[in-house]
Amino acid sequence: MSVNGHDVTQSDVAAAAGVSRSLVSLALSGSPKVAEETRTHIMQVAHTLGYRINASASALARQRSTTIGLVLPNLRNAFFEQVSRSLDDAAAQQGLTVFVAVGAENQERLRRAIDSLLGVRVLGIVLVSPWLTDAQLVALGEEAPTCLIGRRPPGGHVDSVHIDEDHAARVIVSHLASRGVGSLGYVAPRVVDDASRLNREESLRRAAHAAGMTLTTEEAGDDDAGAAIRRLLGSGTPGMGLVAHNDMLAIDAVAVLRELGHAGTDRVPLVSYDNTYLARRAEFALTSLDQPDRRMAHEAVRLVVERAAALARKLDAPPAAQDVPTEGHLVIRSSSTL
């Protein structure tokens, strides 16, 4: 049977049943995570529409696919573009191509982007710092091989590649302490722009506490972190050093510091994360925590390919999720030196 001229898909079943596609996938695969009443409802809708479950054919189609889906949170962060290029290079080395979709804080738009990738049966999906709940990510992992970059594993069968945030925070705090800093101000993005914010903030807080410092967080606005930086600098906390969540936010900090005349003995040390091309530009010269994006991309492609192959061999026995931490290193430039 077909709907509007095309074969019935799980998205069609989800729309007719009034539930998410992920829930449909879990129900049709017999997952115990779905309430029996909900499963019965979904199965009845699927039967009415003429949907036929063919998990083996779906798994085979994914295994034969040469495309990996990549979901980026936005295009504002230079690091996301850097990861995209590295992932494309890593995929090309294995004869694969990358199809990029941009998510958003709008959950419906993000869901459509992911559904589009699932609809073409990509080999697997890689998500960079996705703002989805653990439960949503676990459900996605039941539908297709899924790997996260920049976020710790949510459980289930979802793989993850990320920097060791605790190690990075200790390195940054130690460097700033050596510059005479007595407290830290953290310039953070909105969580919907970068889900790594929560883990990073907590790691910085622990490292600051261990060094006898306080950590004050201010969240940046949609387009400019200037107001957040001014609030930190105006808090009256003596000996503050600034830590920006990424190089994009650090550039705003550089502009504010110059405007307010923080130079010489009044200079505020500034450190950021990602070490993108922006950090290397002479006019910014940011001290920045380098994330090994090439290695992270290589590991993400490896995990997707290995999981897809394992599921093709034995669909009902998915391998355990893998968590691959990597170490970043601090590249010191003039933004943090006196």
Please name the CATH topology of the largest domain.
Answer: Rossmann fold
DSSP summary: helix tally: 13
**In CATH terms, what is the architecture of the largest domain?**
3-Layer(aba) Sandwich
The description of the largest β-sheet is: 6 strands, parallel
Distance between the ends: 71 Å
CATH homology superfamily of the largest domain: Response regulator
Q: Tell me roughly what share of residues is in helical segments.
A: 40-55%
Order of helices and strands: EEHHHHEHEHEHEEHEHEHEHEHEHEE
Task: Please indicate the percent range of residues in DSSP E strands (runs of 2 or more).
Answer: 15-25%
Poorly predicted runs: 1-5
Radius of gyration: 23 Å
Q: Can you give the mean pLDDT?
A: 86
> Main sheet: which strands, in order across?
4-3-5-6-7-13
What is the approximate shape? Answer: elongated
Question: CATH top level of the largest domain?
Answer: Alpha Beta
Q: Count the strands? A: 14
Number of domains: 3
Tell me about this structure.
This protein folds into 3 domains: 52 residues, lambda repressor-like DNA-binding domains (434 Repressor (Amino-terminal Domain), Orthogonal Bundle), CATH 1.10.260; 138 residues, 3-Layer(aba) Sandwich (Rossmann fold), CATH 3.40.50.2300; 135 residues, Rossmann fold. 46% of the residues lie in helices and 18% in strands. The protein contains 13 helices and 14 strands. The protein has a 6-stranded parallel β-sheet, sandwiched between helices. It starts with a strand and ends in a 7-residue tail after the last strand.
